[in-house]
Amino acid sequence: MSRFDLREVCVRRDGHLIIDRVTATIAPGRCTALVGPSGAGKTTLLRLFNRLDDPSTGTVLLDGAPLETLDVLALRRRVGLVGQRPVLVTASVREELRVGAPQLTDGEALGLLKRVGLPEEFHERPTEGLSGGEGQRVCLARTLAVGPEVLLLDEPTSALDPEAAAAVEDTLCGLMGGGLTAILVSHSAAQVQRMADDALVLRKGQLVENGPVAEVRYVNGGG
Amino acid sequence: MSSPAVPEWTGVALSVSLVGLAVLIAWRQRLGLAREIVIAGVRAGIQLFLVGAVLLFLFKHAGLPGGFAWLAVMVVIAGQVAGRRGKGLRHSRYVATAAVAIAAAVTMGVLMAFGVIQTTPRVVVPVGGMVVSGSMAATGVTLSRMMAEARGQRAAIEARLSLGLSAAAAFAPHRRELLRTALIPTLDSTKVVGLISLPGAMTGLILAGVSPEVAIRYQIVVMYMLLAAAVMAALAAAELGQRMLFTPAQQLR
Ligand SMILES: Nc1ncnc2c1ncn2[C@@H]1O[C@H](COP(=O)(O)OP(=O)(O)OP(=O)(O)O)[C@@H](O)[C@H]1O
Ligand SMILES: [Mg+2]
């Protein structure tokens, strides 16, 4: 079911404690927002969920199993990550959608484009020249092609203009409806209120608030 | 080979006057280089003098084991120098030393196994020196390009890792790119050999009075051997270096 548990998780870099003993649960099938001021450690924490990094001490569990006991490649296919900026790694959208899913049929590819709100013609487009919003949706489609149960979203709309951001957000909200578990890093309280069910608030690496979005003061202007 | 083309010690002494001339010009023109020219000249002279003495000793007394021992020392030195190019890579000096050692062992092994070169210190030491220095250059460029790719393309590499690709698969496009870059100088110099530059081995042989036909045969062997050594060193450095770039959990360090 994809429930994450963080147990006393610490991340230390160059002698600094960037994540300071965080213990929390991420509920399956819901969207959990990870919020807090810049430098609070949100990105650092997010990267632990698909093991781009490991905690210095403490454990992250997925459905009760410590992540390091799982096959890391299988874990990453189960837990997809979409970064802050679209990073396209091939020359065409066709190839891009197949980086993690080489067997993808054309029919499936077109279905994915539709799911992220891009017209079918995009399948034959080069990746060069895509706008930020289009690129971000291609990245999302590329991640969905692998068939993840969990989506990690690191400020997925912060590099986009308001119109593109709204389009990507719509796409994401549609996906949430489909039973996907999501962890969303966001700087926008409005976005968190629109998209997330729960919120974790980090400050200087410490978990300072945790609960349903409606009850978390940081998101509701209580700072 | 008491060819008249080889300078006597008096000739060597006279060639010092060329350095004197260079120093004089540098001093008159206030280039601020006179001191450095003197130091470089003296240093090169002493180094070559010592190497000559070592070689003389090796050839006369140490035999083949001594020759191979000297080769091993060269590999270690080359590994230190090339390893410095991979700044930031874990164990970069070990990686570089291993890459140079593999390239040198395979190349020299083939040449000796097929009897292309004589298995005597007089041949093994200088030919090995060329192989080691070629491997060192290729290893150094490979490691420095590798670090540049790992730093500059971090986002792309991690994007591929996040899609469930293994470290090797996620790095493959960058590896291809960096190997091409690392081998271009060797390939280019192989292409124009004889046209633009008369390479060292051939120049040396011709100067020493050997006929160009013989010199060319030697040079062809040297060229092919350097090409093979560079390719093997670059491949080995990329392969071993890549392992240091990622953790066992397929994370980019
Ligand atoms: N390798 C590192 N060495 C030292 N400090 C680091 C390192 N990586 C990150 N940090 C520090 O850790 C802190 C948390 O970084 P992180 O990127 O997780 O913050 P964030 O909450 O995502 O911030 P933002 O909202 O600006 O994206 C920052 O102060 C950052 O400077
Ligand atoms: Mg961040």
Structure description:
The complex is a heterodimer of chains A (223) and B (253). Chain A is α/β, with parallel strands linked by helices. Chain A is 30% helix and 27% strand. Chain A has helices at 42-49, 72-78, 93-96, 106-115, 132-145, 162-177, 189-195, and strands at residues 4-13, 16-26, 31-35, 57-62, 65-66, 79-82, 150-154, 181-185, 198-203, 206-212. In chain A, strands 6-7-8-3-9-10 form a six-stranded mixed β-sheet, sandwiched between helices. In chain A, helix 4 crosses helix 5 and helix 5 runs parallel beside helix 6 (162-177). The longest helix of chain A is centred in the last third of the chain and has 16 residues, at 162-177. Chain A is globular, with a radius of gyration of 17 Å. Chain B is mainly alpha-helical. Chain B has one domain. The N and C termini of chain B lie far apart (57 Å). The mean pLDDT of chain B is 88. The chains are: A alpha/beta (223), B mainly alpha (253). The A-B interface holds A 50-54, 68, 72-74, 76-77, 80-81, 83, 85, 87, 89, 99-100, 139, 142-143, 146 and B 155-156, 158-166, 173, 249-252. The complex binds adenosine-5'-triphosphate (ATP) and magnesium ion. Chain A: Residues 4-219 form the ABC transporter domain. Chain A: This is ATP-binding cassette domain-containing protein. Chain A: GO terms for molecular function: ATP binding.
